[in-house]
Specification:
Arc Repressor Mutant, subunit A; 2 domains; binds zinc ion
């Protein structure tokens, strides 16, 4: 994925998120967006630990299933990832794109999987909201800092990631990647 494609995906997501006038964590918008797009969504209690989610189309019906057993940040990422396959109109194989842990979280992913991941990162952690929340954190943190003198930069970064990942309901790991992308930490 080159920078042009990344920019395209980021712009697409910005358009989708324009409805977020209340500055809610974007994951909270998912059910409305899914309804608007006429997608049927279901969490399924799957025994297969490797299975994360699937996007498939039967006739006119578009469907997303995610594994209900995933822990919340991972589940959220998977839902946004499947939505990425839908918005980016990725080619289906036998009517479906099946995403397991390896395709979403592993290395050497096929290009559409990387794109769906990037879509999910842009969707769940929009740049402008990250800046806003980071500023908010820094205000609070500098007040706290007077109480805990001698805090190191590393502690501050850890607290920042904790604060942001809690708000956006994503894993600390994906938050770390996203902040690095913008050189925000
Ligand atoms: Zn996928």
């Amino acid at each position: 994925m080159d920078w042009k494609r990344r920019k395209q995906i980021a712009n697409l997501v910005d358009g989708i998120l324009q409805c977020n006038v209340l500055n809610r964590p974007p994951i909270d918008l998912i059910s409305d967006i899914i309804k608007q797009r006429g997608i049927k969504f279901e969490e399924r209690d799957e025994n297969d630990e490797e299975f994360c989610g699937v996007y498939f189309v039967i006739g006119e019906a578009k469907i997303i299933f995610v594994n209900s057993n995933l822990y919340e940040p991972r589940k959220n990422f998977t839902i946004a990832h499947e939505l990425g396959h839908h918005f980016l109109v990725h080619p289906l194989q036998d009517g479906a794109i099946i995403c397991n842990k390896d395709t979403i979280f592993g290395d050497n992913k096929p290009e559409p999987e990387k794109e769906a991941d990037y879509f999910a990162a842009c969707f769940l952690m929009p740049k402008n909201m990250l800046h806003q929340k980071k500023t908010e954190f820094e205000k609070n943190y500098s007040q706290q800092l007077n109480l805990f003198k001698g805090s190191e930069e590393q502690d501050k970064n850890e607290e920042l990631i904790k604060y942001l990942s809690n708000f956006f309901k994503v894993s600390k790991e994906s938050m770390g990647y996203r902040l690095k992308e913008f050189k925000m930490y």
